Task: structure prediction
Amino acid sequence: MILNFLAFCTLVATLAALPRLILGPTAADRIIAAQLAGTGTVATLIVLGTADNAPALFDAALVFATLAAVSGLAFVALQRTRL
Amino acid sequence: MSLAFDVLLAFGVVFTAAAALGTHDRVASIAGFVVTGLLVALSLVRLGAPDVALAEAAIGAGLTGALLLRSAWRLKPAESRVSPPIDRIIVALIAVCLSGALAWAVYTAPGAALYPALVSERLAESGVTNPVTAVLLNFRAWDTLLEIAVLFVALILVRIVAPAHPQPVVLGELMLPFARIVVPMCAFLAGHLLWQGASVPGGAFQAGAILAGGSLVLMLGGFAVPTPRLLSWGMMVALLGLAVFAVAALSTEALTGTLLLYPDGAAKIWILMIEALLTLSIAAMLCLLFCGMPRRPLK
Amino acid sequence: MTTVLHALGLTLTTFGVSFLLIAALGVWRLPDVLSRLHALTKADSAGLALIALGAACLTGRLNTLLTLGLCVVLVALSGVTIGHLIARAHLSEGDLE
Result:
């Protein structure tokens, strides 16, 4: 019961990255928003896995965490301006 | 409470997709695309399809984002064009009709799903206990073979178009500790997903995509430079999966008389061998799609 | 014993989720790129670690500990590295494009 509410809260935290994604004046803001969404999704999966007693969701959370790392690195490494 | 969660998730997916399409900044669109992919994967988990959710997260959110970014820096800034009102009205009408048709199809669909009962009847003789893997690699292995052929066609197209190699920025000394942990973790996770795909959500596509993600870290960090020699090795590994799958299909024809009917009792071994080579091959194909091919000089 | 563990798990998870919510608020409302980055890294390291600890207490199975531990390590590591790279690019040339 409380865990379902906590899952709802983590989803709200994930979606709260959207204003910064749309508004953020610099590209760095958008990358920060995407990273927050990734972390929020991992947290949502962990809380959902605990609430439904489904440890398979923890494996899914691990995959999501790896992909968030790879995609964040792609955002930072493939910039337009060259040093 | 779960209803509120699902409603918020549905709105979130639609809103993020609209934000990704509506902004005029390219990085914002790609970031919106990645977040939409993550939220769609989350809703697939809620719908009880964790295999598809893993594949969507790995390929849709991770690798496609990198592919889009790799090309985005070569395009000039997006110019905002305002289309005439009549175009927008027609598009709105088509979208409304399509949504109506989808809603009607979902509403009038029969309540019980037919497929799971049929699959669980024959699950014992398929060699694995995960119904998704049984369908992908035994009952409908023909479709999987054709999917690998589709990836192969995409690779051929990339070879023809011959895009420029992506040039990642030099990232500094923190990349080495990062890569030292993330790349072995990707390799370990890929093997884990491949092995456990026989009984719980996992499988060859997901494992291959994770492995491609790890190789992407190597390439972006500057540890693996795409020399022509490395690229031709990658091409060979990429073709290996399709070749082995085709050879396996033909040999099942020779052994049992029917295409892709595995010999009795040996189904698990055949599936495992095909899946292992498919993982390596999918990883190589996705990496080659990212870094392009060696350019041949015109003679 | 199990009720103590259950209560501990719920408390830790609640703290972790509140960290995450406050970090999301920070990313939305703080005035500058660097301050938003600071808020983000708190979510990555502290928030997720507390949630994972709470989940470990609640599920009470040993093999999930490895999975949750790897999650925490990965997210913290990527948060640290990508945060550093964003800050470095922001400070050196004024903007990432």
Observations:
- Residues 17 and 47 of chain C are 6 Å apart (CA to CA).
- Chain C is about 90% helix and 0% strand.
